[in-house]
Description:
CATH class of chain A: Alpha Beta
Oligomer: heterodimer
Strand order of the largest sheet of chain B: 8-9-10-12-11
Helix content of chain B: under 10%
Helix content of chain A: 25-40%
Order of helices and strands of chain B: EEEEEEEEEEEEEEEE
CATH superfamily of the largest domain in chain B: Nucleic acid-binding proteins
Number of domains of chain B: 2
Shape of chain B: elongated
Number of helices of chain A: 4
Amino acid sequence: MRRRDGRAPDQLRPMKFxxxxxxxxxxxxxxxxxxxxxxAAVYGPKEPHPRHILMPDRAVLRARYHMAPxxxxxxxxxxxxxxxxxxxxKVIKEALSAAVLLKQFxxxxxxxxxxxxxxxxxxxxASINAASLALADAGIxxxxxxxxxxxxKMGGELILDVxxxxxxxxxxxxxxxxxxxxxxxxxxQMDGLLTPExxxxxLELAKKGIMEVxxxxxxxxxxxxEAIWREYGF
Amino acid sequence: MTMPERxxxxxxxxxxxxxxxxxxxxxxxxEERDGFIYATRPGLLEVNMYTRTAYVLFHxxxxxxxxxxxxxxxxxxxxxxxxxxxxxxxESKKGVLPLDLSGYLIPxxxxxxxxEDIIRAKVVSPSTPLIxxxxxxxxxxxxxxxxxxxxxxxxxxxxxxCRNCGHTERRKIAKNNWFKRVRRS
Lengths: 234, 185
């Protein structure tokens, strides 16, 4: 089976990962997954405001997922945070919190800002990929990078890296985030219906895609850090 | 032939296994788990061959001071048993790193401190709000203004002197301060 954009069922969209693109942020990253384009910036660890959110034994991780008004095709999206954006901010925060060593910075806050520049399916997984790279770029200690992909079902067949069309007209959508080095899943959601056998196959397909994303994330970091350390004479 | 003290090994990324616990002590940017040492941030893995400590060099500092660090702060409020400060910089060998953190200062006995004094202090507790102290000779006021006329105070011996209104005072002045000296005629 070939998909609408010519991809094989287990094929990712063309991807681009860049690290350290914003000078003013402590860490930043830009991710393209096909036509989905996301930018993430990290600030912190820093003093929390309002003060009552601080935790005495660990840092607080805050994530803000936001879609730019020009990111969608239908009509201008309201820039105010929608119910969906608030929910995605929460699930992204939880997917990242599992990887960040928050106990190293008690009584501080780490802010992750994610801006979707162009939405064409799987924005939450692109956001997690970008935010994870931005956290690494900010030097925030992490157990592992978090890599994410979505698996869908269309025409009775499982497909990897769902785009906008497949998301809207498919039978299921399963976004999955993992710490690939540790084999731990940090986000697993499901929209639609899959049989238990299909679900297990979806997980296997996702793991394959996540390993490819993980390699691209590491490549992006390697390119930046090799250049930096070359400047220092190593 | 002598062994080099520091040996740069390779570039590592979060989650990379860099060795086993018997090989090195896990320093900055590394954590030990189940007998293995993992990198927790991207950077250059280096080993101090004398102390057998491995650490990951990161190209920019994380903006949280550690215990014993020297910070620059502005006094924002003075109460009887506590002085509130706003920390605006971290002093290190590499230079001054801007910060924006709140903190408390343990008042030094018999040493008067005023609102708006700029001080160099030592970090006693690094979790925010920071707890600072001024007990060592290099710590203390590095810059302040006259309480009467708000002019710049100058250093004359161990006293601070206002050239505008003649006010003089003795304060806990840091060794390496920003005061101009009074020129003796």
